[in-house]
């Protein structure tokens, strides 16, 4: 007689800079783990290089049942693992649809890299396209891969504007 259980995705945190080690150790123990990855452009010793890093540093997903067939005890003592993300006393469950969506987005990104070092908060930039073409703005932050947020002074008031990073160049 076998016991049927529902498997769910749960969210784990790893220790700082130990994502890759934690994933490797969990896989070695036979766990089904998903750590979304992204290619990122980084500046290293004055050169721009492409590195593959965690899309969500310090977070990964693990596929487990509710403890009937999977032993959760070794997970907490796995090298690189900090803990389960919890809401109250319950480990945070992640909907299967979210995992599938993340995997599809990761596959779509493919060879494209996210340039996280091009602009920094406070940098002056110039808008190259659209109705604000030629105006100077202040870079605020990246909002995903496809957008950046800049501050543009309109009528003596700073206004947030979302643009594609391709629509900017450093002033």
Automatic annotation (TrEMBL):
Specify the signal sequence span: none
Q: From what organism does this protein derive?
A: Thiothrix lacustris
Q: What keywords appear on the UniProt entry?
A: Transcription, Transcription antitermination, Transcription regulation
Ranges where the NusG-like N-terminal domain occurs: 6-106
What protein am I looking at? Transcription/translation regulatory transformer protein RfaH
Identify the CDD domains for this entry: KOW_NusG, NGN_SP_RfaH
- Database matches in InterPro entries: NGN-like_dom, NGN_dom_sf, NusG-like, Transcription_antiterm_RfaH, Translation_prot_SH3-like_sf
């Amino acid at each position: 007689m076998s016991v049927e259980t529902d498997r769910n995705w749960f969210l784990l945190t790893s220790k700082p800079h130990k994502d890759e080690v934690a994933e490797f150790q969990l896989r070695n123990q036979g766990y089904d783990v998903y750590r979304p990855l992204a290619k990122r452009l980084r500046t290293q010793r004055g050169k721009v290089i492409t590195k593959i890093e965690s899309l969500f540093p310090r977070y990964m997903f693990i596929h487990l049942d509710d403890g009937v067939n999977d032993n959760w005890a070794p997970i907490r003592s796995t090298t690189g693992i900090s803990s389960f993300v919890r809401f109250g006393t319950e480990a945070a469950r992640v909907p299967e649809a979210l995992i599938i969506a993340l995997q599809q987005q990761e596959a779509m990104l493919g060879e494209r890299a996210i340039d996280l070092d091009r602009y920094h908060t406070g940098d002056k930039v110039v808008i190259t396209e659209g109705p604000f073409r030629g105006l100077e703005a202040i870079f605020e932050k990246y909002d995903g891969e496809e957008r950046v947020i800049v501050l543009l002074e309109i009528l003596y008031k700073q206004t947030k504007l979302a643009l594609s990073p391709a629509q900017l160049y450093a002033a």
